[in-house]
Specification:
The protein is of the alpha+beta class and about 325 residues long. The chain has 12 helices and 12 strands. Helix 1 runs parallel beside helix 5 and helix 2 crosses helix 8.
């Protein structure tokens, strides 16, 4: 297997100071592409190899559509989601399965409690148990199954990399991101391709610039139903609702964004932390004129990491030479 990203590929992306003393540092790599796919800025090595994890879901959703899945706009947004497992998310995943006469038992993702604490508490009070619909990848899995049924393929093996649906997903990823040589296994059991940050940024660039009907369908779905892509109050949903920017996280500190004009940014935190990466990505977009300073200021107050605040005793977070401070959400 090709070597993965390491410290030699990385640079300091953000630091946290307390009383003007550096308390924590996060290293990683980031790259910004213009609408033509040219590099506007690279921090660290954009050719470093990563597992984008769930940041690839929009492209897997394109593959599901091409494989024959019939999904309405909200269902398609859920296929791209790392959702919080609210009742609304679970019902939407169930609707995809029901449309092809399947049930939750056909899903091969793990059982899970919702990521949303209120939904989790409600399920506990009602005496419910963890289930597959609440797992954050259930929408992607339901779309895979819908495609398998549409094609008349076996549903029992839908996660096998050689399954026709997975071959369609891989083909879509390679079409929009570039060639793949390594495919691992994701936390949900689905195939997990490895690629460079540049390749992922190129893919996100294509989400907004491609004229392909399936790409347009995915981009429109994510913009029309941002609640489904993650959940109310979450950074991905807030960014999409507030700006129209497609934002999609991946496990272990991966984030991709694409503006409606086609400017894209991808961030990978070496330590797998997600702290501050949303504002880091937005700050890079603003630096290159793809987001207004006013909108960046507004979002900085909503997305500031917990524990950072104003005042003489505040912890402050610094982003690649730029500093944003806001009231702590706690």
């Amino acid at each position: 297997m090709a070597s993965a990203i390491d410290i030699t590929h990385c640079t300091e992306l953000l630091r946290v100071t307390r009383n003007s003393v550096v308390e924590s540092r996060h290293y990683g790599t980031a790259v910004v592409l213009d609408a033509a796919g040219e590099v506007l800025e690279a921090l660290g090595d954009p050719q470093a190899l990563i597992f984008p994890r769930s940041a690839l879901k929009p492209f897997q959703a394109i593959g599901s559509l091409r494989a024959g899945a019939v999904l309405n706009s909200a269902q398609l947004a859920l296929a791209c989601a790392s959702h919080l497992g609210t009742a609304r998310h679970q019902q939407l995943a169930h609707s995809v399965l029901a449309s092809v006469n399947l049930g939750e038992e056909q899903l091969q993702c793990p059982d899970s409690w919702p990521g949303d604490s209120a939904s989790r508490t409600e399920m506990i009070i009602e005496g419910q148990r963890p289930n597959k619909l609440a797992f954050n990848c259930s929408g992607k899995h339901a779309a895979f199954l819908a495609a398998a049924v549409s094609r008349g393929e076996q549903v029992e093996t839908y996660l096998n990399p050689e399954h026709p649906v997975q071959q369609c997903a891989l083909a879509a990823i390679e079409e929009f991101c570039g060639p793949i040589t390594i495919v691992g296994v994701d936390g949900c059991g689905a195939p997990a391709p490895q690629m460079s940050l540049y390749s992922l940024a190129k893919g996100f660039n294509n989400l907004s610039t491609s004229s392909d009907q399936h790409v347009r369908a995915v981009a429109n779905a994510m913009r029309e139903h941002p609640w489904a892509v993650r959940g109310p109050g979450s950074p991905n949903t807030i960014v999409n609702e507030s700006t129209g920017i497609i934002a999609k996280l991946g496990a272990e500190g991966v984030l991709g964004m694409s503006t409606s004009q086609g400017v894209s940014v991808v961030v990978k935190m070496l330590d797998g932390s997600s702290r501050g990466m949303d504002l880091l990505a937005l700050g890079l977009l603003a630096k290159h004129g793809a987001l207004t300073p006013q909108k960046l200021k507004e979002l900085s107050s909503r997305l500031a990491p917990a524990g950072t605040s104003e005042g003489s005793r505040a912890a402050q977070i610094h982003y690649v030479g730029q500093e944003f401070m806001s009231e702590s959400p706690r």
